[in-house]
Design a protein that fits this description.
7 strands; five-stranded parallel beta sheet; 5 helices; 201 residues; Rossmann fold; binds flavin mononucleotide; alpha/beta; 24% strand; two-stranded antiparallel ribbon
């Protein structure tokens, strides 16, 4: 199976990255996986300009930004599962992951339904990644879950928009220091178990 992991932390090798590695380890424990890990702060992923060219409203044109995204989106259509990881940055998912979801919009195809007068009365949406499995990973500094409640809501909404199937969410708290999660065996075990699930077991 092919898994693509998206590390939405600017701190390579830190908490989010460690948890994602555990998910990958879990998935790999049940058979061969082909893995592509994308560091969202290292890849050439330009900021969405909000031009809406990729939307049905503007004729679903190609994104005018030329960078790593075209290849990433193509490979996403070939993958079986995704891992989206983010630190809590000011009660929100990281700017890198927000931008990534914006740049994923070309995967969504919408048929706009209009009435006889041309007024939009609905949309039929389909996506190029429909039904693929997804795991979300969130690490935060504080100990209270409420700090990340909005992040989980936003992640769930995006997973729904892309018609992905969320099979697990990993939440780890109290990780202000770099790689603090390495001292949290329960969180690492939960990430490993999620990986096993991602592999279909
Ligand atoms: C700019 C910034 C804002 C942050 N805001 C919050 C916050 O609102 N709540 C929280 O619990 N932790 C917050 N944190 C702490 C991170 O969520 C925490 O250190 C996380 O484990 C970082 O993951 P990483 O090591 O993979 O980057 C913030 C960290 C940074 C750098």
């Amino acid at each position: 199976m092919k898994i693509m992991a998206f590390v939405g932390s600017p701190r390579k090798g830190s908490n989010v990255d460690c948890l994602i590695d555990k998910v990958i380890e879990g998935a790999g424990s049940r058979g061969n996986i082909a893995l592509e890990k994308v560091y969202l702060y290292e890849a050439d992923i330009k900021s969405c300009t909000g031009c809406l060219a990729c939307t049905a409203l503007k004729g679903s044109q190609e994104c005018p930004l030329k960078d790593d995204m075209q290849g990433i989106l193509n490979r996403m259509t070939q993958a079986d599962g995704f891992i989206f990881g983010t630190p809590n940055h000011v009660h929100s998912m990281s700017a890198g992951l927000v931008n990534f979801f914006c740049r994923m919009q070309p995967l969504i195809k919408m048929d706009i339904i209009r009435d006889a007068s041309g007024t939009i009365i609905g949309v039929n949406a389909s996506t190029a990644v429909s039904g693929k499995r997804a795991i979300v990973v969130v690490s935060q500094g504080d100990f209270s879950y409420t700090q990340s409640a909005l992040i989980f809501r936003a992640l769930d909404s995006n997973i729904r928009d892309f018609q992905l199937k969320k099979i697990a969410e990993i939440f780890s708290a109290g990780n202000l220091e770099r790689s603090a999660v390495k001292e949290k065996p329960a969180d690492l075990d939960a990430a490993f178990a999620a990986g096993v699930k991602l592999a279909g077991f």
